[in-house]
Specification:
Layout (H helix, E strand, L loop, with lengths): L10 H10 L13 E5 L11 E5 L4 E4 L2 E3 L7 H10 L4 H8 L5 E13 H7 L10 E5 L2 E8 L4 E9 L1 H5 L22 E2 L3 H5 L7 H4 L5 E7 L7 E2 L2 E3 L2 H4 L8 H16 L9 H30 L10 H9 L1 H4 L3 H12 L7
Helix pairs in contact: 2-3, 9-10, 9-13, 10-11, 10-13
Length: 349
């Protein structure tokens, strides 16, 4: 149903590769948790330092702050509060409603399965070789080999249709329910084997060999009005945390980083022009990542038979929804970013 041969590997292995390419001049500080930042608005020059405050009581200053701090981002609500400061009440309410992630209505069931153990139980199981998806009403899962065949990655989903349908809609006065995890503020829940199997009990026997995992919630970030304000920007899940149905959250984060590198690393960018550079990043990146998030959500609904698509047309609908992955490139956005950075006379509002 999709074109190309995507690479599959363990996230930890990918992290190791990225870390191995860090330059010696880069300094890493581990074990630090940001709780807030301050960026004085009264400074007429606009060049005042940004002060970071950490949970351990320490502080640091910087000229540019990029919040790559995930879906539970601390930078996002701080930035949106600054952005909304001088807005009218209704617009301000809309912006502030985007500060916290919301439960999408999707619950995820995930684990890594030992290929050796699965092979002992079912020597010719298809997931030992191929990407396989088992689809059912309001629930489905997929499994595929990773780490050179050492493991089978299992990822299952259940979708509450009413919540999924409204995940990207503007706020209403009706309270949106939250996920109930092990505690009220956690996103992970433990299930008995019977509770886990229940959503997938009607799937074929071949699927039943894989059904021993844990249960967690899938949250998303609403469509933001902006991913930058002055010399602060957010990227990755902090900016567009999305459902995992297209497996594209990390990929979009990498594209964010490349676009940010292009505008901030350009020889024309100075401390005074950083706000314009970040506005270019937002202008070119945010519409595309928002569309990917929307398509990802629809991809899950198609696989859970929640779209009014005849079964004989479902394969084509899934393929059409995936087309962005092989028909689009970041190259045009990068070229446009360079053009806008180099010609400051062009209006980017």
């Amino acid at each position: 149903m999709t074109k190309g041969r995507p690479m599959r590997f363990h996230r930890a292995d990918f992290h190791s590769v990225l870390l191995s390419f860090l330059l010696p001049s880069c300094t890493m500080h581990n074990g630090k948790r940001l709780i807030s930042y301050a960026h004085p608005l009264e400074d007429c020059s606009g060049n005042s330092s940004i002060t970071l405050t950490f949970k351990d009581g320490s502080t640091a200053i910087c000229d540019v702050l990029i919040g790559a701090d995930g879906i539970k981002s601390i930078v996002r609500p701080c930035m949106l509060r600054e952005l909304a400061e001088n807005m009218d009440p209704e617009e301000k309410k809309s912006v502030l409603s985007c500060m916290d992630p919301i439960w999408s209505g999707v619950a995820a069931y995930r684990t890594l399965i030992s290929a050796q153990k699965l092979r002992e139980r079912c020597p010719d199981h298809r997931t030992l070789r191929d990407f396989t998806q088992y689809m059912g009403k309001d629930a489905y899962f997929l499994a595929y080999p990773i780490s050179l065949g050492q493991y089978v990655n299992f990822l299952g989903f259940t979708l509450k249709r009413d919540l999924v349908d409204s995940a990207y809609k503007p706020d209403t006065e009706i309270p949106r329910p939250s996920f109930k995890g092990k505690t009220n503020d956690e996103w992970v829940s433990e299930l008995t084997a019977q509770e886990f199997v229940e959503p997938f009990k009607d799937l074929e026997e071949d699927a039943q060999h894989l059904l021993k995992v844990f249960h967690s919630s899938v949250h998303n970030v609403k469509n933001l009005p902006s991913t930058n304000f002055r010399r602060v920007a957010i990227m990755g899940d902090a900016a567009h945390g999305m459902t995992p149905f297209h497996g594209s959250g990390a990929g979009q984060g990498i594209e964010d980083a490349y676009l940010l590198m292009t505008v901030l690393g350009h020889k024309s960018t100075t401390l005074e022009t950083v706000p314009r550079a970040l506005a270019i990043y937002d202008k070119l990146g945010r519409p595309f990542s928002s569309e990917v998030a929307r398509r990802s959500m629809r991809g899950g609904q198609l696989c859970a038979f929640q779209e009014e698509v005849p079964l004989h047309e479902l394969g084509d609908a899934v393929t059409k929804n995936w087309e962005w992955a092989w028909l689009t490139e970041l190259d045009d956005a990068v070229k446009e970013a360079v053009r806008l950075v180099e010609d400051s006379s062009i209006d980017i509002s």
